[in-house]
Amino acid sequence: MLKQGMKYMEILNDIITAIGNFYFAGNKIYKIIGVILSIMVFHKAFYFVIGMFFTRKFKPAKKKHKYGILIAARNEKAVIGNLIDSINKQDYPKELYTIFVVADNCTDNTAEIARSKGAICYERFDDAHRTKGYALEFLLDRIEEDYKRDSFEGYFIFDADNLLKANFISKMNDAFDSGQKIITSYRNTKNFDENWIASTYALHWIRSIRTNHRARSVLRLATNIQGTGFLFSNEIVKDGWHYTSLTEDRALTADAVAQGYQITYQDEAEFFDEQPISLKVALRQRLRWSKGHLQAFVESGPYLFINIFFGKRFLKTNWNKNKKKVKKEKTFKNVMLDILESIRHRFASFDTLSQLTPISFINLCRWLLFSVIIYSCYTYTTGIYGSNIFSGNTILAKWLRGITDIEVNVGPGYLAMLLGFVLAVWHRLLWRMGIYFSNMWMAIYIFIIENKRIKKISLKNKILFTLTWPIFDIIGRYTTYIALFMNVTWKPIPHESKITIDDINNKAGA
């Protein structure tokens, strides 16, 4: 028995040593993967600089276009009336827009309220297909039957908790009239200061504007649609709405980019929505987002990847298939324009693919494999000498090293292996804590640069929201890990805010 035990120990030692011997080669692979991931997001540094100073501007429209306004609502009696009131107060001709509501599996009087406010309301009862995408599919099918989808030049999508500024449709019409087919807008928050959870969402939406939407619109690329407050041409839904996953906005974005569409941003069109204030509800929503994000990556990622190298040659759908192709004269100007469009489309595909790629999960896997498992096995044969417990390049790590200098020194063996594992985990936690504090600057930046557009918040709350803001990204990272292995279903987000567009306007005026 003793001999057999020693034999197993020798086998174990051989396995650990073999893994440890791969450390230097593995470290090179670790760095190569890191370089690839860095390349995928490197361009965002330029986005930040551009977004700080510039956004795309649109000239006043020459024509006022006809729109359908789509609202999917499930038990939204508390807010649906306020949204429709804000739409009815638009400075846009009322005969040029029609409000459509789908009361989706409602058990309250959402439908009655919508109709009393002048909306055309269809009721849907199909709890087996629960997502907002299915509700929109149903609504657009009813519009095709009763009105024909192409009787409206474009369609807006709003959530029931939204509120629109009076010039919202007019400003979006300016962008639509310029020839843009998909347009998103400035997303503000009506309950920004209700608690720290709502504030993390509010800061996130404005961060997206500053670090993504503004720059992409200036560069004529494709920004991402974020669930609500956007407008698209009727050609997008000429064959109906087919985005029924957990995050229909991500799916539509990826498909639109694969088709070669620009997705632009209109900074002058502003709306407000309500953010969750319950941590339980926020976690549930973020888990759904993460799962939908992964689904969009699986569904559209390969097409985007192919587009980077081959352009629009391999598509899963083609919205423009029925359009007559206009034969261009092969002039130098047209050839150059075609080349520039090809470059724009390929880069937009790369940019969108980089958004959909689950980089946080890839980083976790490479850290576990190379920095924890292989490194621990390496220390088994070499020991640990001169490893500072506060190593790292974050401001926090440097500050701690300035206070104290504690090093770990231990000879080869199982103790070194155990300490190697503990040090790897500890250094990761220390790095994450350093990143947490470093990320607070984004909240400070937003409070300063967007001071005129966000609601007035006390200094005490600004400090609190700055301190808690990085939690938003932490939640997103861990819900991505969980979503990979969990079956996620769609559940409604409750909305209870009584705030109206008049309340917001009165506070802004004051």
Please explain how this structure is put together.
Helix content is 55%, strand content 12%. With 510 residues, the chain is of the alpha/beta class. An eight-stranded mixed beta sheet has the order 3-2-1-4-7-6-8-5, sandwiched between helices. Helix 4 (80-88) links the parallel strand 1 (67-73) and strand 2. Helix 2 packs antiparallel against helix 12, helix 10 (279-310) packs across helix 17 (471-483) and helix 15 packs antiparallel against helix 16. The radius of gyration is 26 Å and the shape is globular. The termini are far apart.
In a nutshell, what does this entry contain?
This protein is α/β, with parallel strands linked by helices. Helix content is 55%, strand content 12%. It has 18 helices and ten strands.
Question: Which tags fit this structure?
Answer:
about 10% strand; globular; two-stranded antiparallel ribbon; alpha/beta; 10 strands; about 500 residues; 8-stranded mixed β-sheet
Q: Termini separation (Å)?
A: 85 Å
Q: DSSP strand (E) fraction?
A: 5-15%
Number of helices: 18
Order of helices and strands: HHHEHEHEHEEHEHEHEHHHEHEHHHHH
Low-confidence stretches are: none
> What is the rounded Rg?
26 Å
Number of strands: 10
Strand order of the largest sheet: 3-2-1-4-7-6-8-5
Q: Kindly state the mean pLDDT as a whole number?
A: 91
Shape: globular
- Helical/strand content category: alpha/beta
Let me know the largest β-sheet.
8 strands, mixed
The helix content, as a percent range, equals 55-70%
